[in-house]
Specification:
about 400 residues, alpha/beta, Nucleotidyltransferase, domain 5, 3 domains, five-stranded mixed beta sheet, 13 helices
């Protein structure tokens, strides 16, 4: 911690001191008196050797790793098949085995587990309300998770407390704490581009009016909110798996991008994409398109420009609603970098209120490949911070 921050924690004002020492707590403070979030130091004193485990449950794999409070790894990263379509018992066993292996490699006994799951997550009741890619096959039909208790059964298997959240929401929380948000942004909005489109919103106390602590992860009334990928950017437009028309997800997720590329190629457009896949169009991926962009391919650049423009319409709306100082683009497709973020930024500028756009930095997320486990770790540290101030 810098000397200036250490000096600030010596204030004699007990309310300001508590805000400074426990920035991740829900301690209630009067924001009309203490509005400067940038003065909050990074860490919770008295916890230098403690660790937590961040866990990312996906449709194919489950990954877990122990972390110190500053985001430094405190053990090996463990990865194993998630058994995501083999039923709850096998999924719980995969989770428990992976977490226990991560705990065994940790520098100290983990205090908490934070679990990132794709779907509608009710952490208060320890339930997964809906997870479309996780469940079991019954008579040849996939039955996805609905109202499945997870926290308590998992705690019984691993002997450690568990908190859980939506994977995209937690990716935003992790990016706020350990990534481009630097644990000091006033408001961070993150959108993740992959097989689907997720998102999250993290608000510091300075970005809301009233009595609160922070940072605050926006969940909504039933804890299923911040589904940024389902914001409509084209009325009556393309459909997506959610059954809606014209959402960001329809244009910017993996299959939508591939479909756009194939339409252009099948209409006879000349492109090095053909060479990269040796004429096998079923092998086209967003990464293929990025590699073609690196070679200056006009068709590939056009694909990402069009996708970026649809994305930018949505991002401009997010800027108008949340006025973020950081707008992070994550997910595997964000690895296309400025090929997609550049056009998105230009379109967002046209859609956003000028004064709000001017104060927003739009950039690629720092944690792309490991967003879930960092997000889980951030949730676990937040839960520990809350306990210390309760």
């Amino acid at each position: 911690m810098e000397g200036g921050a250490l000096e600030r924690t010596r204030t004699s004002d007990p309310q300001l001191r508590k805000l400074m020492l426990y920035p991740l707590s829900y301690e209630r403070v009067d924001l009309r008196v203490y509005p400067t979030h940038s003065e909050v130091p990074y860490s919770l004193p008295g916890m230098p050797n403690k660790t937590v485990i961040g866990v990312d449950l996906g449709g194919t794999n489950v990954r877990a790793q122990a972390f110190f409070e500053d985001g430094t790894p405190a053990g090996e990263r463990i990865e194993a098949p998630s058994n995501a379509q083999k039923g709850t018992e096998m999924i719980l066993e995969a989770l428990a085995s992976t977490i226990n292996r991560a705990a065994a490699s940790a520098d100290s006994k983990p205090e908490m587990v934070g679990l990132a799951i794709p779907g509608h997550i009710d952490d208060e009741h320890g339930m997964v309300r809906w997870a479309p890619n996780i469940g079991s096959m019954v008579d040849g039909v996939f039955q996805y998770w609905q109202d499945v208790p997870i926290s308590k059964p998992l705690e019984a298997r691993i002997g450690t407390r568990v908190h859980m959240g939506n994977d995209a929401n937690l990716a935003a929380l992790g990016e706020y704490r350990f990534g481009v948000g630097k644990n000091s942004a006033h408001c961070l909005v993150m959108i993740t581009l992959g097989t689907g489109i997720g998102g999250g919103v993290v608000l510091a106390p300075t970005s809301v009016h009233g009595h609160t602590g922070g940072p605050l992860l926006l969940l909504g009334g039933n804890k299923g909110g911040a589904e940024l990928g389902h914001v409509i950017v084209q009325h009556g437009g393309l459909d997506c798996n959610a059954g809606t028309y014209g959402a960001i997800e329809a244009y910017c997720q993996r299959d939508g991008i591939i479909r756009r590329a194939l339409h252009k190629l099948r209409r006879g457009r000349k492109s090095v994409i053909y060479d990269l896949v040796e004429g096998e169009l079923n092998l086209v991926t967003p990464k293929t398109i990025s590699l073609a962009c690196d070679q200056g391919d006009a068709v590939a650049l056009e694909i990402y420009r069009e996708v970026g423009e649809f994305l930018g319409v949505g991002l401009g709306s997010f800027i108008n609603i949340f006025a973020p100082d950081i707008l992070a683009i994550g997910g595997q497709i964000s690895k296309a970098g400025e090929y997609i973020i550049g056009p998105a930024r230009e379109e967002a500028e046209r859609a956003a209120i000028p004064s709000l756009f001017r104060d927003c930095t739009m950039c690629q997320a720092e944690h792309v490949d490991d967003a879930g486990i960092f997000g889980g770790a951030a949730l676990a540290w937040e839960a520990l911070g809350f306990e210390r101030t309760s």
